[in-house]
């Protein structure tokens, strides 16, 4: 049924219900390590350029608007390829597919590192997204097909920690390399990692014959639908606010393209002999609930990684490296809890764990609704640590639930869907944050201005004092306008964290649809 089955030792006395040995061998664990390393590399590169963008834009001659595509291009390509990974894996074989993805990812990373203009950079980032996106769901597929059920929690713990650490490490690594070496090394760092990953794949993964017939029997309507639907939707979400949504001809066209893509995708579900991705999995009570909660976890994971550096840069005047250190705090609980996660999965009811994780994440966002213009990095320490605990509880248990809710043969489709919705959650968060920031900033500014009576003696005395300090009435008015904008921005960030907290609370009841994980299986620590 799987590569792991073929590699089982002859004469193995005990096998699991999957037909796998009760205890995975060293090759299986090396394969799991390779999958987790690949996922770490791919998720790290989502955010590694965030702190380097101003420097990169300046050196390759891109405007601020054009520069956002350096980040967006990766995410668009990744979201498109993730659901296609199961089909590509069936066609090429898992090891061949991963080797091709890793080698191409490393090559595109080098192209980004040597880029001298925006076109080269965008081509490199799109290539990174297409190939890196394939490394994320295949890590879950390796766990599902190479490890017995009793040891899957350990594999999920390893994968979960690397996938969580990637987005939070990205701004720190990118900021440090940019300030101490060069922004080019934010991409060159993938070369030694890529070489290590190729070596692990060659050693640990068995070769499987390619089934190129899949190319001719493929669900081409579904493949085209995924590319047009998810690609178009992601661009609309990323660029909609900047382009004034449907006032922009480009956004209208992209929306129609996305709608056509989803029509083709659903048509493929009906007419294709084997759909490129099994959307019917979402009809399963457990998997559908896992997908919904995965969207919210993605919103918080990527949303806070974006919002916190923005706040610290605008309000506390932090540089990229300082902000990256604050973002990294949420990764500390992941490292501390990693040794205990298999036992937690074995002994804690999944509904209790996920509910607790969601409520902790909601509480962490609620703590950040009281920020002021005097807040700095220290204001986020408690909330970031809590957010890390909540994220790892949700992420690990939802990963385990996603795998447990489907058969082993559907593991690739389930992994692709789960990771796609998590990344879509990130897109929703970034699009929502841009919209809220624009609208609430304007609203709060107007409200503050309306509360200031120009004829008030207090206001006039304050402006007179400022004028004496700054050398004139015009300077005083500009200073007051800056203060209003600053306060309005702080209130806007508080609104964003409030919305994230409420969004998390809304999906908490979905834990009631989760089924308890199988009991009575020993968690073998390896």
Topology (SSEs and partners):
Layout: H1 3-6, H2 26-47, H3 53-60, H4 64-81, H5 85-92, H6 94-113, H7 118-146, H8 152-180, H9 185-188, H10 190-204, H11 213-216, H12 220-239, H13 249-271, H14 285-314, H15 320-328, H16 332-337, H17 341-347, H18 350-367, H19 381-404, H20 411-451, H21 457-470, H22 473-507
- Relative strand content: under 5%
Shape from CA axes? Answer: globular
Task: Give a quick account of the main beta sheet: strands, pairing sense, barrel closure.
Answer: none
Radius of gyration: 24 Å
Count every beta strand, where a strand is a DSSP E run of 2 or more residues: 0
Oligomer: single chain
Helix/strand class: mainly alpha
Question: Roughly what percent helix?
Answer: over 70%
Uncertain parts:
1-18, 520-526
Could you characterize the architecture of this molecule?
With 526 residues, the protein is mostly helical. 74% of the residues lie in helices and 0% in strands. It is built from 22 helices and no strands. The chain has helices spanning 3-6, 26-47, 53-60, 64-81, 85-92, 94-113, 118-146, 152-180, 185-188, 190-204, 213-216, 220-239, 249-271, 285-314, 320-328, 332-337, 341-347, 350-367, 381-404, 411-451, 457-470, 473-507. Helix 4 (64-81) runs antiparallel to helix 12 (220-239). The radius of gyration is 24 Å and the shape is globular. It starts with a helix and ends in a 19-residue tail after the last helix.
